[in-house]
Write a structure and sequence with these properties.
9 strands; single chain; four-stranded mixed β-sheet; Butyryl-CoA Dehydrogenase, subunit A, domain 3; 55% helix; 10 helices; three-stranded antiparallel β-sheet; alpha+beta
Amino acid sequence: MDFALTEEQQELASTVRSLLAKRADPRVETYDEQLWQLLCEQIGVAALGIPEEHGGAGFSLFESLVALEEVGRSLVPSPLLSSLVTSEALLAGANEDARGELLPRLAGGEVGAFVDATGGRTTVPDVLDGDLATVLVAATDDGLWLLDADATAREWTPSMDQTIRLARVEVDTAAATRIGDGPAAAARAALVGAAGVAALQVGTAARALEMTVAYSKERVQFGRPIGSFQALKHRMADMLVRVEMARSASWAAAYAVSGGTADAERLAHVAGAYCSDALTSIAAETVQLHGGIAITWEHDAHLVLKRAHSLGQLFGTARAHRAAVPL
């Protein structure tokens, strides 16, 4: 099946990209709250997939993932993925009262975090934006719970990639409010998380290719731009092929997960595996083709490498996604 963005979706991507190009700083400590406010107020990125009756824009998950790809391209820290996963988990598992209370808050730009505490866990590591969220939702085997963000014990977990923020969260359901079906919310969160990570990986890979091609035109060796050497042209062409194939896998998963089709889970795993491997390869080539400047703090190449590593673990490794694809 062929996939292409509609004119409206292309305009959304262009608008998000333009704003991020002007305002995004990948080196902020947590995330740029003013930039997040602009994205939510001027473009409505947090509200895209939330129904209108709950304060959203009434589009679909696919539009949210289009915006997320542009966030990946910018390399900027952003709570968009964590808030998106939280809103989709609420749509899948929360009761109507909880949806009516929490979804408008997420649509308005409050940061959400989803904690998968199924399997009897009470301490959950590596919760995306878990220490920053004001809407904190946990899924257990016997329910979906709204945690008290002020009373819940949670602690930032340092990681190699400063653009992806993780936290350890203690889940105490005795002090929480039961708001729905935990396993249903967790299943939806896993699918949306995999598709969301794939979108971020595609955006990051596209940024890596762009900066590599630009550098190859500027860097002169033996009196010629290095991009004129045939061997490097071939390597960058291979990078382009990987980016485009990853985008196809990501969009296929996004359409399927958004529409709830029968093959949504399979396509999410395919995208999770392929996009992760593609970004890992492209990040390595980016560092190689930039040479020594790639490992300096001032250049963004090291941010691509770090994000490739972190996204390769978030919502499942490439190996885990491949193992989950039925043969």
